[in-house]
Structure formats: structure tokens, C-alpha cells
Amino acid sequence: MLLIFIASTIGLMVILVFLFVQLSPEFGGKVSEAHKAEYEKLDHYKDGTFVNLIPTSMDMSFTKFMSIMRDQFSSKTLKAPTKAIIPLKLDSLDIAENHQTRITWFGHSALLLEIDGTKIFIDPMLGNVPAPHPMLGKKRFVEDLPIAIEQLPHLDAVIISHDHYDHLDYGSIQKLKGKVDKFYVPLGVDAHLIAWGVEKSKIEALDWWEETNLFDIQLAFTPSRHFSGRGLTDRNKSLWGSWVIKGKNENIYFSGDGGYGPHFKEIGEKYGPFDFGMIECGQYDTRWDEIHMMPEESVQAGIDVQAKVIMPIHWGAFVLAFHDWREPAERAIKKADELGIPIITPEIGQPFIVSALDMQFPHWWENLQAN
């Protein structure tokens, strides 16, 4: 009887997981056969999946897996603050009426960019948990958003770097889609948005090195060294990358996620110099260093793309790795000082003007204890 009970319980769990994966909208859509046929013509699409420009291993050996499991349950690293971070608050009218080139960090890689009179939200993961279900991830350790999604003014565009849960959030898209004119995404990510009810006419999917225009702003989708996937069977079915956003007076770079590689210099040579670079710097580990940079590499990447000033992103909101939550900023600042590149660390919700990056940005995290 005990064996029957155990077998029945396991069987029920398998059925529930299967149904969840099949029925939950969180997992997004599937790329059409017609689009797959187009992708086959690309040199970075092989055997039904996208590939990086240089060899990139994501193999997980048994030894690595066991070491991660050990750290998951025994690590004493200070991964999160003891109390929630309270962000600075934004005013919707101020956003609507602003005409300066201004950026506001929402934590992790979510940023509101105001440039040449347009409002662009980059990787607006504004949900509480970067996972397909709240039970499958750890909650955001920021008390609230700088402004509720419902209070945001009209947005001219949303830009997505790739389809991972900490960058593309179903709930956020559902709340945003009615107030956004255009979505710019990597190849294949359009399938998710269409499945979530975004009109096809609002979506433009780009390949690496493709360019488009948002009014007088030039957008270019550029490579990164990473991967994609939201479910059990869609690894690398959509593309990933970084973005160049060139306005009338300012040229801005957003790195998306990824490991260090020669693509940064290539981007700098083609589109640089940049007035400002937002560079991934967080959720790293030597066990997956080919797909996420160490902070020192993040600083070097900023130099490679020819950014005049850099800002570490991909930290300050979620626990997705084992390092101290404050470490990304501290290591990046130390390396930036060594290499002589200016670096800024604004608070979550603190708008800053791109033409005035020489202002002082206190190390706000130093006042927060971590557990």
C-alpha cells in the first residue's frame, strides 16, 4: 500500500507539472515554422537553435550541480538585505512632461529611458518573482516600485533583451501592453508577446546588427553571449542580445545579459563611443562565467564599447546567485577606479540626467545591513 501511495503521489505530481507547463501562459508562445525556416538562413542558427558568436558552454557536470546544491542550502553569503529597500518615488506627470534625456533604474535590469521626448522602458520586469510561479523563485527585495505600472504615462516603446523571467515578465506585459505603442524584441521573442495578446502590428523583431528607427532615434540590436528559454523544451529557440539607442545628442548602450567576449569591442567600433553604458553586473558565479560576467569584466566591457560613463545593472532586486547582494557594485567601483572609467550607482527610483553624470551618487547600499 505504501508503494502504491508513493507511486500515485509521484504520478499526480508529474501530471500537475505537465498541465502547468502546457496551460500556464507564463511560458509564452512557440516560434512558427515559417519563422524557423527564415532563421535557418542565419549563420548563428544551427540545428533549430540560436548559437553564440564564440563557443559558450552551459554544460552542468555532476560535480558542478552538487556544488550548487550544497551552496543552495549551506551558503552563509549575505545574499539579501535584512529589510526591504525603499525606492525613491516617481511622479507620472513629471515623466510625461520631461524632455531631457533621463534614466531611472527600477532595480535589476529594468530601466525607464526618456530621450528626445520619447518614453522607452527597457526590460520591464516589474513583477515580484522572476519565475513562472511565485513558489519557484525568491521575492523581489525592493519594497515597492518607484511608480506603479498603472500610474505610468503613455510609453512610446518597450525594448526587450531576451526572454528570461528576470527580463520578460508575463504579468508586467499584461499591464503595460495597453499603454505601449511599439515593442522591439529579439527574433523569436515576438511569439511570446503575440501569445500574450500584444498586437502583431506593435511588435518588431530584430536579428543581431539589424537597425530600425523610433521617430528620429536609431535603434540597433547587437550581440551578447548568453542563451534563452522559458520552459523545458525551448532552450535557445529565441535570440538574445544588447541594444544601442542613439538619439539626437546622446548615444546609449544597454548590454542585456551575457558573458564577456570580443563582441563588446566590435559594438564599440561600429556604434561607439557611447555617452552612457548600462552594463550587466550581477548574478555571476565562476561556475557559469561564460554566460554572466564578473564585475571586473563588466567594467572592461564598458571600456570595450567605448562608454564614457558606465552603470552596473542586473543587481539590487533579486537573489539569482550566491554572492553578497552588495558585491557587484563594490567590485565594479573598485575596478572602474583602477581602470579610470567613471561609474555611477544611482538609487532605485532616482532619475538622473545623462548630460549631468558628473553629479555625486552616494553608496546607498552601505546603509542597509544584509543577512
UniProtKB/TrEMBL annotation:
Domain of life: Bacteria
Domain Metallo-beta-lactamase residues, every copy: 119-315
Matches recorded under InterPro entries: Metallo-B-lactamas, NAPE-PLD, RibonucZ/Hydroxyglut_hydro
Gene3D superfamilies linked: Ribonuclease Z/Hydroxyacylglutathione hydrolase-like (3.60.15.10)
PANTHER family in alphabetical order: N-ACYL-PHOSPHATIDYLETHANOLAMINE-HYDROLYZING PHOSPHOLIPASE D (PTHR15032)
Protein name: MBL fold metallo-hydrolase
Species whose genome carries this gene: Reichenbachiella agarivorans
